[in-house]
Design brief:
2 domains, rod-shaped, four-stranded mixed sheet
């Protein structure tokens, strides 16, 4: 009797596993699919362009931003930090020409919401 009871328990366990495994596979597959969709629809980071036009007084700074930034700074190699949002704003336009020439030492970088963009020096 105990032999048939043990065999019966083994058979019922196998049948239970056969019933549960497809459900587990479905749940894992659904979870991976939704995780992949979430990664693809993630909000893209901000982007932009930074041009430094050389002049006699310093550099004229031309900026393009992909979307209105929360933080926007300009850094040069000596550690000078300029808050570009204070002068440019970027509420209506995505471009800005900094109002006055800046004395900077390249390389110059722009920081937009966690993204760092290298400036390109242009000679007229």
């Amino acid at each position: 009797m105990s032999y048939t009871r043990g065999l019966s328990n083994i058979v019922s366990s196998i049948l239970l596993l056969l019933a549960i495994v497809p459900a587990l596979v479905y749940l894992v597959n659904t979870g991976l699919t939704s995780a992949s969709i979430a990664m693809e629809t993630r909000i893209a980071a901000n982007h932009g362009l930074l041009y430094l036009v050389r002049s006699n007084e310093g550099y004229r700074v031309l900026i393009y931003i992909g979307k209105p930034p929360g933080k926007l700074y300009l850094y040069d190699s000596t550690g000078v930090r300029i808050d570009l949002l204070a002068k440019c704003g970027f509420t209506e336009s995505r471009t800005c020409i900094y109002p006055e020439p800046l004395v900077l030492k390249p390389p110059v970088y722009m920081y937009i919401d966690g993204v760092i963009i290298a400036g390109v020096v242009v000679s007229p």
